[in-house]
Amino acid sequence: MTEPKVRPQRSDWQRNHKRLVTVAAALVARDGAQVSLEEIAREAGVGSATLHRHFPSRHALLEEVFQDSVAHLRWRAGELADKDPRTALLTWLEELTVAAASTRGLAAALDAADNTAPYSHTCHGIVREATEDLMSRALRVAAIRPGVPPDDLITLVQAISQATEGDPPAAGRLLRLALEGIRHR
Amino acid sequence: MTEPKVRPQRSDWQRNHKRLVTVAAALVARDGAQVSLEEIAREAGVGSATLHRHFPSRHALLEEVFQDSVAHLRWRAGELADKDPRTALLTWLEELTVAAASTRGLAAALDAADNTAPYSHTCHGIVREATEDLMSRALRVAAIRPGVPPDDLITLVQAISQATEGDPPAAGRLLRLALEGIRHR
DNA sequence: CTACGATATGGGGCGTCCCTCCACTTTGCC
DNA sequence: GGCAAAGTGGAGGGACGCCCCATATCGTAG
């Protein structure tokens, strides 16, 4: 179940796959999620058909490019789970938002999109899982008000990080504003 | 000062200009802000060069397409100014957000972008003005906490409406979440 | 080590897009 | 009615995403 692959891919397939992901990571970091797919193929020394065969959509490529980053964020959520639930959730959300605003393309990779892959292996799915986890802990000690759908919170984070891509301080400010509200206390 | 035009445009210029804006409004409403400019020109019965001559960028076109919608929103802000400042601000922000999420392309038109036009005539500038107005009233009666930059609030609205384009209820939910915060009271 | 079938590749072609050039037409004024 | 200025549009350059299919490469079985 963790390895339902019927057959391991050929060596040249693996080589090209790795090259594509590596090059894509570099170019997305430089130019953002909208970088030309043809340029990625060119830079990787591969025909454009090969790129499209390996990744049926731009999103599928981004998904793999940011797999590690998201895994690290997920791990960080687990680490925070020891702390006070309110702080844990707020810290996690802020770190997530700032990371997504600092790392070009990451915000786009977090889109729910039309995922064919098993949900829990997508960037969006992993982040959602972590958020739900920390939210339920915070809810249990009444650190946050009930009735907030996790998906809304994630959409909010995604919206903010996409709007502030390239300006991490702004991302942090906007997230804190959204979490604190605007009311006078 | 309201009419610094040196020379009134020729009649065919005006005719084409109007046609372009009208057609663009229809196609943007149907396909979103990313609609093909060539298709707009084709549908309007003009060469693509004419479109580019009238509107140096996609944003400039959107700017004019949504001029009326934004003017109406601005007027609405003035109308709300009579009410209780807190309610006025919250109502305005929600109406703005929902409108931007309901009207395809409007969220994109609200981008600050690289505006060459006088700031107060752009969609972004008009909305900013209205928001600042209502915010300062709310601040005066301590209905909102101080230290929130108007631009942050506008960016937030813009981010939410772009992320929820086509789903107005979600837009409303996300905005209220962001204005109320997540804390338990 | 060789031969062979399955697997994978890539160049090139198609349709689309944005944008600009320039020969041409339309307009408005004398 | 004629003429300069203003405006037009179609063609074409450069780039892109995506797909087809003739070719090359890989892994294995003999």
From TrEMBL, chains A, B:
One of its GO terms (molecular function) is transcription cis-regulatory region binding. InterPro entries: Homeodomain-like_sf, HTH-type_TetR-like_transc_reg, HTH_TetR, Tet_transcr_reg_TetR-rel_C_sf, TetR_SbtR-like_C. It holds the Pfam family TetR_N. Residues 14-73 form the HTH tetR-type domain. The keyword DNA-binding applies. The keyword Calcium does not apply. Residues 36-55 bind DNA. Keywords: DNA-binding, Transcription, Transcription regulation. This is TetR family transcriptional regulator. It comes from Micromonospora sonchi.
